[in-house]
Amino acid sequence: MRLVAAAAIPAPVLPVAPNEAPAQFSPGPMADFAEGQLVASKAMRGAAFLAARYGLGVLVSLGNMLVMTWWIGPHAYGLFVTAAGLITFLGTLGRMGVDVYLIRCEITPDARAYGVATGIILTISTMLAMGGVALVPLLARWFGNQEFVAPYLALLLTIPITALTGVPTAKLERALNYSGLAGVELGGQCLGLLVALAAAWHRLGVWAPVAGYASWQAFILVGTYRAARLHPRVDWGAPMARAMLAYGIGLTASLRAWQMRTLVNPLLVGRFAGAEGVAFVGLAIRIAESLGTVRNAAGRLAIAALARLRNHHEDFHSTLERALRLQILTLGPPLCGFALLGPFAICHIIGERWMPSLTVYPFIAAGVLANSVYNLQASALFVLGKQWMVLRAYSVHLALLGAGTFFLLPHFGLAGYGWAELLACGGYWGIHAGLGHFVILSYRRLLPWLGIFCALLFVPLVNSARMRPSLSATHPAQAAHRLVVWNGKTAVPTKHARTR
């Protein structure tokens, strides 16, 4: 194992007054051991709370998904996914990495630091919301219709709300206080489900998920401020703001390069396959990411926990390897379970009109598994101050996904997006190579499990391909249905095919 000296990779430090020096403390071996044990204990409790929160959140998310798919249909759901994909990206961009700066800062931020962070985020998120309004004509021209405009404009109002949540959330995560945070997030998710359910019951169509999303974000903003015991305030300080932005810009570029992949579905799939295609791909992504939410818990916990272990080389290395193995073994069974039971679940629970989602689900689930090997490594690079390495890797990933979708989807239908997901996994090599300069990780125990799970994911598609010749001779209608599941062409023709 090789790990650089901690002095070469310092965490951000809040600026102090000229006559004030930060406190110096050099712990001894026993203090190092006690600190490592304390962090490990808090991290395990935090992991338990996050696991419970995300486990219950999966149930709420699946319930919300069933309501939307049953009552509003693919077209309205596709319009919401298109608008929400754009809004979610802008909302997270508004934080500019300031929230992660507050988590990693060596000196505990005071009320003024949180006030400066609030001022930065509020200013940037408001500007992004205004910029989103200015993009409406270009988006309408790109999609060739204006059906998405009204829900898109309504959701633009939630951008400052979503962005500001990062300030109190940073305070809670810095203290590894995931119990209060988990309760607030789960409560907001439940409220969003109830609001969406009521709106869908009154046949409000696309406005049902819009209302649910807005109420969800508003609840989390209020709840996290209360849980963190933080009073909203706006403060200004040029030195402190410069320090936050200097760190945040690099981090934001890396993370947002990754999150820009969420724009591929609304922008590229929406252009070639319409709102229905966005809905089918969006449903497959929603299922795979709901079943793989442990990645979100692990990624959030990793930055807070590894930041405290960066001076403890052996603990840093062993914690990272154990987390990778645990993540793969936790993600694989539910993802493969849905791949095997998906046709039954779609037909008897969600509805047969959603069957084209199975075209891309195995590809997306395989991408989730591949990402689970590297997302914690990316968190480790953030802790080591090497966010630009992550930026390069994520940029390659995004370029491969976008180019693959652009060229493959018009020719292969929805399956083209799936193949683009697999192609984009090549971008993760940059994360592996970058972390290899500091920590050498072994994949010997990971690769066999990864191969088994990926093979199980594609069993239904392989079986459907083998059954096509016999089905076409015995039951033409069923053969056509199987063809939809295999390549998605008959279910979602491209935009040019529909015009012809």
Can you walk through the features of this model?
This protein has 500 residues and is mainly α. It has one domain (36-499). 77% of the residues lie in helices and 0% in strands. The protein has helices at 29-71, 73-93, 98-104, 111-134, 136-143, 149-156, 159-164, 166-174, 178-201, 207-228, 238-259, 264-291, 294-309, 313-350, 361-383, 387-412, 414-424, 429-435, 447-457, 459-474, 476-487, 495-499. Helix 9 (178-201) packs antiparallel against helix 10 and helix 15 packs parallel to helix 17 (414-424). The model is unreliable at 1-11, 13-40 and 469-500 (pLDDT under 50).
Can you lay out the helices and strands and say which pair or pack?
Elements lengths: L28 H43 L1 H21 L4 H7 L6 H24 L1 H8 L5 H8 L2 H6 L1 H9 L3 H24 L5 H22 L9 H22 L4 H28 L2 H16 L3 H38 L10 H23 L3 H26 L1 H11 L4 H7 L11 H11 L1 H16 L1 H12 L7 H5 L1
Helix pairs in contact: 1-9, 1-12, 1-13, 2-4, 2-6, 2-12, 3-8, 3-11, 8-10, 9-10, 11-16, 12-15, 12-16, 13-14, 13-15, 14-15, 14-19, 15-17, 15-18, 15-19, 16-17, 16-18, 20-21
Strand content: under 5%
- In total, the number of domains comes to 1
Count helical runs. Answer: 22
Task: Label the structural class.
Answer: mainly alpha
- Mean pLDDT across all amino acids: 77
Q: Could you spell the SSE succession in H and E letters?
A: HHHHHHHHHHHHHHHHHHHHHH
- What is the helix content? over 70%
Oligomer status:
single chain
Termini gap = 60 Å
Categorize the overall geometry.
Answer: globular
Count of extended strands: 0
Low-confidence stretches: 1-11, 13-40, 469-500
Characterize the largest beta sheet: strand count, sense, and whether it forms a barrel. none
Taking Cα atoms only, what radius of gyration do you get, to the nearest Å? Answer: 23 Å
